[in-house]
Design goal:
With about 300 residues, the chain is α/β, with parallel strands linked by helices. Helix content is about 40%, strand content about 20%. A seven-stranded mixed β-sheet has the order 7-6-8-9-10-11-12, with helices on both faces. A five-stranded parallel β-sheet has the order 2-1-3-4-5, with helices on both faces.
């Protein structure tokens, strides 16, 4: 057991924390930094109280099992996992090492925990998804592009959270008077085919779920197609996307540090309830809106947490 760093006591040993993600190192940088900041706020000093063993799959989720097995092999004391796929890889690799989810959609439905209140087993952490997020994303896009009666949804079947998000998007569509066109994609060729289908289906707008390293290709094709698109994360809009709405992942990873702190002090993961998101972000790129010939309604701008000009 580790002594309480926040109380000024020296740690009995240096905790080796494995950080596992299916994204690239660049794509995970802000979340890792938020997690490390959370530990510092709790009194932990990197190199004195903890070290981080970082493993990224570079956008290829098929690599996650081998990376998780490697963290088990080096005897990591705790695994912090980014996303549902990484969480499942971690759970399959070990039933003994505590696993803290930084973000994962529907951890109960994905079989990661028994329930939010009583996770059971060695996995706990934070749900990165809350009912209503996908609905809100569709509502905002509909408000910005009211002429788009057919909205394409680009999703990845291998991502455990995407079927859930797709089902919720479909359920919300009738009330808004729009038709959802689901388009599956796993690799770059699939994405090219999906955009060809978008043109064929005459979709007037696009919702994109997370695609990791492939997101850049999607952003470029959306711009080339003059297609208004909504994304899940801030970085997508900073890279030129029109808008995003979703959970603040940086906030989740700061909170993940509190789970690590409690586990290092002796609390079992099974006794730590899974928590829901608290902070949400709506980012709008006005430069992209102008290039698309769109005027963002005032009531949408009022909901934006950040506007890029």
């Amino acid at each position: 057991m580790w002594e309480a760093a926040g109380a000024g006591a020296a740690a009995a040993k240096i905790a080796r924390i494995g950080f596992l993600t299916s994204a690239s190192a660049e794509g995970s940088e802000s979340r890792l930094a938020a997690f490390q900041q959370g530990l510092r706020e709790l009194g932990y000093v990197e190199g004195t109280h903890f070290t981080v063993e970082f493993r990224d799959a570079g956008g290829d989720p098929d690599r996650l099992p081998e990376l998780a097995a490697d963290l088990v092999r080096i005897k990591a004391d705790i695994l912090v996992v980014q996303g549902s796929a990484a969480a499942q890889a971690g759970k399959q690799a070990t039933s003994g090492i505590p696993i803290v989810i930084g973000n994962a959609a529907d951890p109960v439905g994905n079989g990661l925990v028994a329930s939010l209140a009583r996770p059971g087993g060695n996995v706990t952490g934070l749900s990165g998804f809350q009912l209503g997020v996908v609905t809100k994303r569709l509502e905002l896009l509909n408000a910005v592009v009211p002429s788009a009666s057919r909205i394409a949804v680009l999703w990845r079947p291998s991502n455990p959270s995407h079927p859930l998000q797709l089902n919720q998007t479909r359920a919300a569509a009738p009330a808004l008077g729009v038709t959802v066109i689901p388009l599956e994609a796993e690799d770059a060729d699939d994405i090219d085919r999906a955009f060809a289908m978008i043109r064929q289906e005459r979709s007037g707008a696009l919702i994109v779920f997370g695609f990791g390293a492939l997101q850049r290709q999607i952003l470029e094709l959306a711009a080339q197609s003059h297609l208004p698109a909504s994304y899940p994360m801030r970085g997508d809009v900073e890279a030129g996307g029109l808008m995003s709405y979703g959970t603040s992942l940086e906030d989740l990873y700061r909170r993940a540090a509190a789970y690590v702190d409690k586990i290092l002090k002796g609390t079992k993961p099974a006794d730590l309830p899974v928590e829901q998101p608290r902070t949400f972000e709506c980012i709008i790129n006005l430069k992209t809106a102008q290039a698309l010939g769109l005027t963002i309604p005032h009531h949408v701008l009022l909901q934006a947490t950040e506007v890029i000009e």
